[in-house]
Amino acid sequence: MAGPYTECAPAAVGQKRQQFGSRFLSDPARVFHHNAWDNVEWSEEQAAAAERKVRENSTQRVCQEKQVDYEINAHKYWNDFYKIHENGFFKDRHWLFTEFPELAPGQSQDHLEDLPSDKRSEAPERRTSEDGPGLKIEQHKCSSNSLECETQTAPVGENVTQKFSHLEICADEFPGSSATYRILEVGCGVGNTVFPILQTNNDPGLFVYCCDFSSTAIELVQTNSAYDPCRCFAFVHDLCDEDQSYPVPTSSLDIIILIFVLSAVVPDKMQKAINRLSRLLKPGGMMLLRDYGRHDMAQLRFKKGQCLSENFYVRGDGTRVYFFTQDELDTLFTTAGLEKVQNLVDRRLQVNRGKQLTMYRVWIQCKYRKPLLSSAGSVAPAPDA
Ligand SMILES: C[S@@+](CC[C@H](N)C(=O)[O-])C[C@H]1O[C@@H](n2cnc3c(N)ncnc32)[C@H](O)[C@@H]1O
After folding, report:
1. 379/381 Cα distance (integer angstroms)
2. Do 297 and 348 contact (CB within 8 A), yes or no?
């Protein structure tokens, strides 16, 4: 069932961290010699088998009543998820800086180079070690227009963060308003992207915003010992809620990052969510995304009765996932007024050497930029929500 393999130039362990796509399987007999192979080409038979599997698992749709429940209570299903897993489920992703150097421009990643590429994790997956959450209640209070802060004990969670997300944002009175480089992560979960950014990007002008509609996840971010309110602002926010504003003005962000979050949103709400985010970017600012691609192993594993709509499924725990094509993402971003910098598919063969299992993963990675100027010479207008 394995497809043809391209020639290889293996990434040496201990060498400078490579971008995805650096270890190619030339000899199928060596498949169990490493944990992962890059840019695996699928044969026609394999693609056809995947197509059949999807048709099969999509024949029976979840009933309307349950669909409404999964939509209305989406944040509750994710809260339950984080109550069970706390921050032991998703791995920190240091590969982020190789793929998205925009997250730490001009910073050395030397301290991250000793991790073999085998150990990189791209999709939300279970950790091998169950690290504790390292909860700490001491918080810092930042003045709203400065990066300076004083230490104090503050309550954590929804009450505090909700207050901010309903504020009318005034151009020079918002968290991190004096920062010179602003990054927002949407659907941040427990901070597996945010904390590596804060650790790696030492730019004194950096300020990182992160939000999630799971108040449980945000509480875990805020109470993590690495959470520094002088450099970071975590808040509860539903990216599909049109009535909820972000705590930053329009055209104020340099980077917006979406890691395996857009796939959790019901497809007919994706466009408006991306439009709203696009308005927050500065001209020249970038939206970065990594998410599930069509026919990823996770899609093929769904059973009949878990399909909500085409390529959109519900997991056993009530959380949902969509599987994108490159074209669909291109349409979402360009309709939001952004221009393509990168839109690639990462086909990877992961191997469980112990169990002699092969897993074909498909991820899509995108970078889209807000144009500096419209063709008329003025700053490009953002699309209506
Ligand atoms: C698969 S997890 C990924 C978490 C994190 N980005 C990571 O890579 O570890 C998806 C996250 O998106 C969040 N999410 C889903 N729908 C959302 C929405 N409408 N608004 C905000 N967050 C959402 C979930 O609570 C969850 O934390």
Report:
1. 6
2. no
